[in-house]
Design brief:
By secondary structure, the protein is an alpha/beta fold. The protein has 10 helices and 14 strands. The strands form 2 sheets. Strands 1-8-2-3-7-4-6-5-9-10 form a 10-stranded mixed beta sheet, with helices on both faces. It has a 4-stranded parallel beta sheet with strand order 11-14-12-13, with helices on one face. α1 packs across α6. It is globular, with a radius of gyration of 20 Å. It starts with a strand and ends with a helix. About 3% of the residues have low confidence. Threonylcarbamoyladenylate binds next to β5, β6 and β10.
Length: 312
C-alpha cells in the first residue's frame, strides 16, 4: 500500500523520515511531482529506476533546500552564482561540475562528471528537503514514457504500489518541468526548455542563451555513451568465462566482482558503476559479464553494459 501523506507537519516529518530510511517518496514541487530518494544511498536511487521502469540510467536532478547545500555538491562559476541568486528557489536546474568526494551515488549522475541541481520553489518541498538534510534525487514521478504528473492522483495512477508514499500538496502551480541550464566557460547553454522562460534568463543576466549541444558532453538521454566503460574488452552474457577473462558476475557464480550474488537487480544496479570503475582501475584487459535478466531494472543494467561492451 502506498501511504498518502498530507501536507502538514506530521506528513512532512513522516516523508522526511521515510526518505532518510531509503524509501521512495513522491512529493510536489512547483513544477511537477518528483519521485524522491536519498541521493547519497545507491540502493534507494536504484529503486527510482525500478519504480519508473526506465530502460536506461538517465542522470537525475539532486534537489536541495538552499544554494549553500548545492555548493556542497557542485562547483559554481560566476554565471551559475548569478543564476542561483536570481532564480532560486524556482523552476531552474543547473548542470555543474561535481565536487570531488560529493556524497552523491554514481547512479544519480549516471557516471557523468557533472550533476544537475535545483532548489525547488515551493514552501512545502523546501521544508521537506530541510528536514531530510541530504540531497534528494528525483525525476518526475511518472512511469517511463508517460507525461509528468501534476497531482497526487496522477502519481498514484501511474506508479501505484511501486512506491512507499506520496506527499499530497495539491496541484503543481507551474505544471511544466524545470528549465535546465548548463553554464560553462563563460557561456550558458539550454539543455531543456521548461518553467523558466529563457528570455527572462537573457534579460536578467544580459547574456545570450545558446541551444548548441555542449562539445563532447553527453546531455540528453541516450547520448550517454561510454562513461565508466572500462578500457578492457567486454564480453556479455557469459556463462563460461575464458581463462584470461575477469568475470563480473551476477547471481551465484564464482567471480572476481559480483553485481549481486543473490541475483537481486536493485542491488546490481546500485553496484554497477562502482564495479565498472573498479574493473577499470584493475586494468583488466578482458572482462566477461554474467547474463543479467532483461526485465525490470535489468533492462537499464543491460543497456549500460551494452554501452560498455560497444566497440570504441
Ligand atoms: O521540474 C523538474 O525538473 C522535475 C522536478 C521533479 O524537479 N524533475 C524532472 O526530472 O523533470 P527528470 O529526471 O524527469 O528530468 C531530468 C533531466 C533529464 O532529461 C536528464 O537527462 C537531465 O535532466 N540531466 C540530469 N543530469 C544531467 C547532467 N549531469 N547533464 C545533462 N543533463 C542532465
Ligand atoms: Mg521526466
Amino acid at each position: 500500500m502506498t501511504l498518502r501523506l498530507s501536507a502538514d507537519e506530521t506528513g512532512i516529518d513522516r516523508a522526511a523520515e521515510l526518505l532518510r530510511q531509503g524509501a521512495l517518496v513522491a512529493f510536489p514541487t512547483e513544477t511537477v511531482y518528483g519521485l524522491g530518494a536519498d541521493a547519497t544511498d545507491p540502493r534507494a536511487v536504484a529503486g527510482i529506476y525500478a519504480a519508473k521502469g526506465r530502460p536506461s540510467f538517465n542522470p537525475l536532478i539532486a534537489h536541495v533546500p538552499s544554494l549553500n547545500a548545492a555548493e556542497e555538491l557542485v562547483l559554481f562559476d560566476d554565471i551559475a552564482r548569478r543564476l542561483a541568486a536570481a532564480f532560486w528557489p524556482g523552476p531552474m536546474t543547473l548542470v555543474l561540475p561535481l565536487r570531488d568526494g560529493a556524497p552523491v551515488a554514481d547512479l544519480v549522475t549516471a557516471g557523468l562528471p557533472t550533476l544537475a541541481v535545483r532548489v525547488p520553489g515551493a514552501p512545502l518541498v523546501l521544508r521537506l528537503l530541510d528536514r531530510v538534510g541530504r540531497p534528494v534525487a528525483a525525476p518526475s514521478a511518472n512511469p517511463s514514457g508517460r507525461v509528468s504528473p501534476t497531482t497526487a492522483d496522477h502519481v498514484a495512477d501511474g506508479l501505484g504500489d511501486r512506491i512507499d508514499a506520496i506527499l499530497d500538496g495539491g496541484p503543481c502551480p507551474v505544471g511544466l518541468e524545470s528549465t535546465i541550464l548548463m553554464p560553462a566557460n563563460g557561456t550558458l547553454r539550454l539543455l531543456r526548455p521548461g518553467g523558466l522562460p529563457e528570455e527572462r534568463v537573457e534579460e536578467t543576466l544580459g547574456i545570450a542563451v545558446s541551444h548548441e549541444a555542449p562539445q563532447g558532453a553527453p546531455t540528453a538521454p541516450g547520448q550517454l555513451a561510454s562513461h565508466y566503460a572500462p578500457q578492457g574488452r567486454v564480453r556479455l552474457n557469459v556463462t563460461q568465462p575464458d581463462i584470461d577473462e575477469v568475470l563480473l558476475g551476477f547471481g551465484p557464480v564464482e567471480a572476481a566482482l559480483n553485481l549481486s550474488p543473490t541475483g537481486d537487480l536493485t542491488e546490481a544496479a546500485a553496484r554497477l558503476f562502482g564495479h565498472l570503475q573498479t574493473l577499470d582501475r584493475m586494468g583488466a584487459p578482458r572482462i566477461a559479464v554474467s547474463p543479467v535478466p532483461d526485465e525490470g531494472l535489468g533492462r537499464a543494467i543491460n543497456d549500460r553494459l551494452r554501452r560498455a561492451a560497444a566497440p570504441r
